Amino acid sequence: xxxxxxxxxxxxxQLLDLADAFVELNRxxxxxxxxxxxxxxxxxxxxxxxRTSSSFEIAAKRLGADVVSMPVQASSVAKxxxxxxxxxxxxxxxxxxxxxxxxxxxxxxxxxxxxxCAVVNAGDGRHEHPTQALLDLLSLRRAFGDVGGLTxxxxxxxxxxxxxxxxxxxxxxxxxxxxxxxxxxxxPGDADRWGCEVFHDMRExxxxxxxxxxxxxxxxxxxxxxxxxxxxxxxxxxxxREKLAxxxxxxxxxxxxxxxxxxxxxxxxxxDLSVSLIQDQVEMGVAARMAVLAALAEKREGDTP
Length: 305
Ligand code: CP
Prior knowledge:
Elements: H1 9-28, E1 40-45, H2 51-62, E2 66-70, H3 83-91, E3 97-102, H4 107-112, E4 118-124, H5 130-144, E5 151-155, H6 162-173, E6 177-181, E7 197-199, H7 202-206, E8 211-214, H8 230-237, H9 241-244, E9 252-254, H10 267-270, H11 278-303
Parallel strand pairs: 1-2, 1-3, 3-4, 5-6, 5-8, 6-7, 8-9
The chain binds phosphoric acid mono(formamide)ester.
């Protein structure tokens, strides 16, 4: 599962139905089910992660899999072993699923050509983060009932955001209208070809929106001169009560995390559970990843001669 484009509306709907069932199961008990008993899942994170790495680990364990979470800093990567050599080495141990995060766009796709197991893209550079888009869709479906017809504004540092790219693909596929809002320096020049309306003014872009999805300002991916002052950024693009009031009454707020409070979002909005879906997104992450792992394991069994 490398890209949101690997799905179609039917497949996405099937995954969401399965994930929905896992949400209810997880709420009843943390014991899980044994769907992946006898399967091995390897988590290989070359970039930092809290939500994605831990939720993949919990998801795999709840499904009964054997899980190896590789501490990359303590692995032979620190001695100079390449991404490909690392993956090929792990592949020789015959895992069933490799979950990979890497700073290079296309890393997961490249790996998938070198190994015999299933590969899940847990975020590759600024390219894609398909399981994040799936969990976001699940959160929206549970909050609104249906995603079709919703207007979703994705706001902030679109240029560096794999979350934005995967969400644009998946939300559009499921019938939502997607807007992109951000300063001209942080919205890619070709964004109008993504099938979205582009706005540089928060008031205009948020008007009439059902959902406001804030993005983290990814200062670590910017060279010094491109990085905006965080105070000025918050003034124009940070979501606070005043800006949120431009969206539809009852609009819900999302953020994939980690949040920069006071930079792209005000704590007053982020922590208000009557508008914020941020903690729901974290909960949905476990269920959505359980659905992805279960579906991949089932597909592999179907493929085995
Ligand atoms: N949303 C997300 O990918 O968070 P982490 O970087 O903590 O995994």
